[in-house]
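We were asked to recover a plausible sequence for a given structure. The inputs and outputs are reproduced exactly as logged, with field labels preserved.

PROBLEM: sequence recovery
POSITIONS: 635
GIVEN STRUCTURE:
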């Protein structure tokens, strides 16, 4: 694309460095503070779920910025700039997603007092589904964190010249540091600080950018006149890249996996009460209904700025017009440019062109290797002369990266400890006929080591993720192919009482395989007219597609297995009401008596979570176990 002198970027000023460094310093200081405050992170409950003592408002802010990554900060303005405002219809899906999560899913997760979301799988179905779910989550989250880590690094390198490896290392090391020493409290309170950094940065950019582009009214009218407010261009269609139905329904289904993932469930667990957890989810709706339109409007500002009424002039002509006077006999064909011209058929200008000044010259989109870089170009070229402005925006990008990565690291640690390490200890004790030994202080140290290890793995994966493509497509592909099957199994468990482990397992594996097949086929056959029709499925429908396969096959196989099984527990399944959605629980669910095998599972969980600062045998726990079953496990 053509460029002009207007697109020259500016170097960091001293104040830019101060603001950017201050954001990183505050994030690191928050981790250091919570590493020592109130005795520090001495137990796994403190490190992983903040002692289940957090209020709803900071958790709400943490949830917002955990999923408001550079994919949103850079990718969504780029999407609106490149393809119009249609993607902004996505905000409508939040009107049904957050109420559903808050009223249906949160009571189940919070009521079970889980640390890992995938403990639900072993309570409802079978331990094998717990392991598979954990593996899928680890793969999904590791690549997602890698994308959020390398994405801004690529944009910053292309525009400002900071090498990718330096940006990746700085961000990765600082994030790993404060997450490792500060635990969940450090993650949540750092997210609160980063929430205000992101909001403040975008408010400043919108105000200054709209003024630069000609005002809010001009930005809106210019985009309308040029067909960029294409909200309802394609109401329906599953193979159309974006459609209204795909954004409202498919976008909502793509969002659901975020809020049944370990990252979100761990925050529900950190809430001091069910009410606070529900408040945290409900507050996400107004927060995001304010923030996302700001992000989309930024894309409209970019389009209005880089495509003013004089932009249609030919680039070569534009280069000679600025402050120049041409011979009287000079003439050339010029496309209709608007700006008060009475006829779109006017094709000739002759004579003096000195009316074109630096303020009214055509503006052209800068050259970039990815549209995700356009925001960094715009801020640097237009506002880099304002001391501190460029540093504030880069701090905003890094804040989004830090919040997403820190949440992911803490979640990966919890999954590994709760779904791998502790179950392995139980299995080993059973196989050796020995006592199950536990030491919570050791587990806390192990959690910190795991956090550090996953931080290093994410840094390594970031150098692979830079070749994966545009942010928006990547994020929807990752959560669509892997999140759909997980959402499907949770749906079977909470909404279909007759679902069993066999149906859930077959449904999950087939849903994941089909989702991966479609996503891979779409990438490999991109641009091909001879590809299978299924490969043309929009990325907005990936989650819905894999979810449907999981649920449908899960129900069919569950019913078949139920009919052929000779096990009376399978034929006449009894489900703990606490594992079902609240509106499906029987009225007399308080009278439910837990089966012996589930009591044994609770037996181990009790020892692991309640005791744990010493070595205890099973015989020490019998009385406490009975009290826990009576007071906590049954509603």
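RECOVERED SEQUENCE:
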């Amino acid at each position: 694309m053509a460029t002009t002198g207007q697109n020259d970027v500016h170097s960091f000023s001293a104040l830019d460095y101060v603001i950017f460094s201050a954001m990183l310093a505050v994030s690191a200081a928050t981790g250091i503070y919570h590493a020592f405050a109130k005795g520090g992170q001495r137990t796994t409950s403190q490190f992983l779920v903040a002692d289940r003592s957090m209020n709803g408002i900071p958790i709400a802010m943490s949830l917002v910025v955990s999923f408001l990554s550079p994919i949103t900060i850079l990718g969504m303005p780029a999407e609106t700039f490149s393809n119009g405002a249609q993607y902004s219809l996505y905000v409508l899906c939040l009107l049904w997603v957050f109420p559903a999560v808050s009223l249906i899913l949160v009571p189940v997760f919070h009521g079970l007092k889980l640390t890992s979301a995938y403990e639900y799988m072993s309570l409802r179905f079978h331990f094998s589904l717990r392991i598979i779910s954990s593996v899928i989550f680890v793969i999904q989250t590791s690549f997602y964190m890698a994308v959020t880590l390398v994405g801004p690094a690529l944009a910053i390198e292309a525009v400002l010249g900071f090498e990718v490896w330096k940006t990746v290392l700085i961000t990765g090391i600082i994030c790993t540091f404060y997450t490792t020493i500060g635990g969940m409290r450090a993650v949540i309170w750092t997210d609160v600080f980063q929430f205000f950094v992101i909001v403040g940065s975008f408010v400043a950019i919108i105000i200054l950018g709209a003024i630069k582009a000609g005002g809010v009214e001009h930005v809106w009218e210019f985009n309308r006149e040029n067909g960029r407010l294409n909200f309802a261009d394609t109401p329906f269609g599953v193979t159309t890249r974006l459609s209204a139905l795909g954004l409202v329904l498919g976008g909502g289904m793509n969002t659901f996996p975020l809020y049944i993932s370990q990252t979100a469930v761990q925050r529900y667990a950190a809430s001091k009460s069910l009410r606070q957890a529900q408040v945290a989810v409900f507050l996400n709706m107004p927060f995001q209904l304010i923030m996302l339109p700001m992000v989309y409007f930024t894309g409209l500002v970019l389009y209005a700025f880089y495509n003013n009424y004089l932009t249609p002039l030919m680039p070569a002509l534009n280069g000679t017009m600025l402050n120049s006077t041409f011979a009287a006999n000079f003439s050339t064909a010029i496309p209709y440019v608007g700006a008060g011209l009475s006829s779109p058929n006017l094709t000739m200008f002759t004579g003096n062109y000195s009316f074109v000044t630096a303020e009214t010259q055509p503006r052209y989109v800068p050259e970039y290797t990815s549209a995700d870089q356009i925001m960094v170009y715009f801020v640097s070229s237009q506002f880099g002369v304002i001391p501190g402005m460029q540093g504030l925006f880069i701090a905003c990008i890094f804040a989004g990266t830090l919040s997403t990565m820190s949440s992911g690291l803490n979640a990966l640690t919890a999954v590994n400890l709760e779904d791998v390490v502790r179950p392995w200890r139980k299995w080993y004790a059973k196989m050796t006929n020995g006592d199950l030994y536990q030491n919570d202080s050791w587990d806390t140290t192990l959690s910190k080591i795991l956090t550090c290890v996953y931080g290093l793995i994410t840094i390594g994966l970031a150098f692979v993720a830079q070749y994966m493509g545009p942010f928006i497509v990547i994020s929807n592909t990752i959560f669509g192919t892997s999140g759909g099957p997980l959402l499907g199994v949770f749906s079977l468990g909470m909404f279909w009482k007759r679902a069993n482990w066999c149906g859930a397992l077959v449904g999950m594996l087939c849903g994941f395989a089909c989702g991966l097949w479609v996503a891979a086929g779409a990438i490999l056959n991109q641009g091909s007219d001879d590809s299978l029709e299924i490969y043309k499925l929009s990325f907005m429908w990936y989650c819905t597609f894999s979810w449907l396969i999981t649920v449908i096959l899960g129900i069919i196989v569950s019913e078949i297995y139920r009919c052929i099984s000779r096990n009376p527990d399978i034929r006449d399944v009894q489900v703990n009401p606490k594992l079902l959605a609240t509106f499906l629980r029987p009225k007399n669910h308080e009278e439910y008596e837990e089966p012996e095998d589930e009591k044994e599972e609770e037996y181990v969980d009790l020892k692991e979570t309640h005791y744990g600062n010493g070595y205890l045998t099973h015989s020490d726990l019998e009385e406490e176990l009975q009290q826990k079953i009576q007071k906590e496990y049954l509603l």
